[in-house]
Each structure stands twice: as C-alpha cells, then as structure tokens.
Amino acid sequence: MDEVESADLSLWGHALGVIDRWVRAKRILRASLVLFGSFLAGLAQFSLPLSDHWKLALGLAGSAMALFGGIVLLWLDDVDVKLLGEARSAVQRWKAAVIRREPVEAALKTEQALNVGFDQLIGVLGRSLSMQHASLDDRLKVFVSVGARQLIGPMNLGGEHIWTISIFRKVEIDGAFRMKRVASNWADREEEERDTRTWAYGKGWTGAAWQFGEERLNAPFVVEMDTATDQARARYDDDGQAEATDYDRFRSVASIPFRVGKERSIFGVVTATCSRVGAFDVTKGSPGLRNFETIRSFTLLAAALAAGN
Q: Treating both helix axes as pointing N-terminal to C-terminal, what angle do 287-307 and 52-129 enclose, rounded to 10 degrees?
C-alpha cells in the first residue's frame, strides 16, 4: 500500500471518528432537552408563583419542548446511524479494493523487474556477440552467468529455493549425439561443478525436450510441476543416471529446445529447475506461467546468440 492510500485510509478513519463523536454529542443534547423540558414543566406546575393560566401554558410548552426535541433528535440520530453505517461500509469496500489491487500491483512490479532484467540481458547478448576470438561455449557462459541472476529474483525462484538454469548443446560423444551442459548458473555452485551428466535423445528431462522438439509441432517442451510424483517419474527414462537428491533439488522443471538459424534439427536445450513445487506451472493465471514464458524468452535469446556465433 502506498503513501496516498495510507493517507486516504487515515482520512476515512478521522471522518469516522468525527461522526462517532457527533452522534454521541447529539444523544447528550437530546437527553438534555428532554430533561430541561420536563424540568420546566415540573417547575411551572409546582414552584412558580404564577396564575393557573400561565402555569398551564408553561407546563404545556415544557412538555411540548421535551417531546419535540426528543422526536427531532431521534430522527437525526437515526440519520446519523445510517450515515455512520454507510461510512463504515465505504471504508470496508475501500480496504477490499486495496487488498484486491495489491496482487495486481505486485504482478506489475514483477513485470517491470523482468523488463529491466531482459533489457540488461539484451545488453549482455550484444557484448557476448562482440567478443572476438571467443568460442560459442564461452559466450554462452557469459550470457547465462549474468542472465540467470537478472531473472531469478523477479521469478521468485531464489531465497531458500534451490534453482538452476542450464544451456545444453548437442555434441558428439563416443560416436553418439548427446546433450551436454556447456553453460549454467546454479544456486549451488559446488553441485554445478560436480554434476557432469550428459543426456541421450529422449532420456531425462533435457533429452525428452530434445525429442519433443524434433517430433512435436505442439508443446515441444517439458514442464513438470512436481517431479517427485509417481506419474512424473513414469513419464521419463532417466537412463540410469538419476541421483537420490534429484527429486528434491529439481522439484519443478522446464526444458525448452531451440534451433539455430535455418537448421531443422534441435541445436540445444535450456533447462531450468527449482526445488519449489509448481515453479513453472503453466496453468492460466498462475505465476508459474510467467516463469515459464520468461525461460522461453531466455531460450530465444540463447538461440540468437548461438546463431550469431
């Protein structure tokens, strides 16, 4: 909530306080008029040395004054109660509107942060393309080392969560093509250095994304909201390379293949993971969908870098 909204709510609170005090004041005034009118009537009847005619007139005036004042103030009191209720209702509606707007504002701030991140990432892409005598892998390393840090925060994958962003490239190893991680940025840098697994066609999430990219026209990517479920594990052949901690560290995964230039075959795969369930949930309206689209945009930029090599 910004300072303007806080000031508005403070003003509403002050207005409610004024109305509350005014209602109480008029209740006191009503009681005073009733008592004063009754006093005059009683005084006229029992105390003043006046003629019976004046005593009757004064008594009737006092009674009428008490009655009229009571009726008028009762009516005004009822009006003020309604006014107070409307004011309180207005405050509640305002608070509800603020609460509804806060998620929208948070989403806008996230979108702005992502825009800033991608602006910086495009700058890194330009510098990487201008790196003379640098290999493609070296350029991709610079790109992902800077890019991942720009995007992890807005995607809310950091903090206590374990995240990874990796770029795999198709290379030939022992006479067969496999996806090899050539550039990456992981939250756990020791694990990043230790994990040297490569993936065959159709094996693991990265290999499956490679296969989907070659064979599918629709949804040529891998997205798993919770890799630890039996259904998710059954969908992929880990090629005997799964480690005991994989389904804790890599709980959510998005693997997106990419081509370079006019090549028909898949050139590489960008794989992002997070230890948080649903980090790449592609359900409409889910924050995970924004994260998936962010990784897909990152993949397109990586493809552009590879094409410019």
A: 20
Tell me the per-residue pLDDT of 281-296, one tens digit each, with 9 for 90 and over: 988 878 888 889 889 8
Residue linked to tokens 């990784």: 295
Taking the C-alpha atoms of residue 59 and residue 53, their distance in angstroms, rounded to an integer, is 10
Q: At what angle do helices 136-152 and 287-307 cross, to 10 degrees?
A: 160
Q: Which residues of 250-276 are buried (b: 16+ CB within 10 A; e: fewer)?
A: bbbbbbbbbbbeeeeebbbbbbbbbbb
Query: Could you give the C-alpha distances from 7 to 10, 11, 84, 103, 281, in angstroms and in order?
Result: 5, 6, 20, 20, 38
- Say how far apart CA 281 and CA 102 lie, in whole Å: 22
Query: pTM for this structure?
Result: 0.65
Tell me the Cα Rg of the chain.
Answer: 37
Nearest in space to 277 (alpha carbons), one of 215, 229, 220, 221: 229
* pLDDT per residue as tens digits for the range 87-111: 455 445 544 544 554 455 555 565 6
**Side chain identity at 77, as an amino acid letter?**
D
Confidence of residue 154 (pLDDT cuts 50, 70, 90): confident
Between the two ends of the chain, the Cα-to-Cα distance in Å is 47
d(CA 26, CA 84) in angstroms, rounded, equals 14
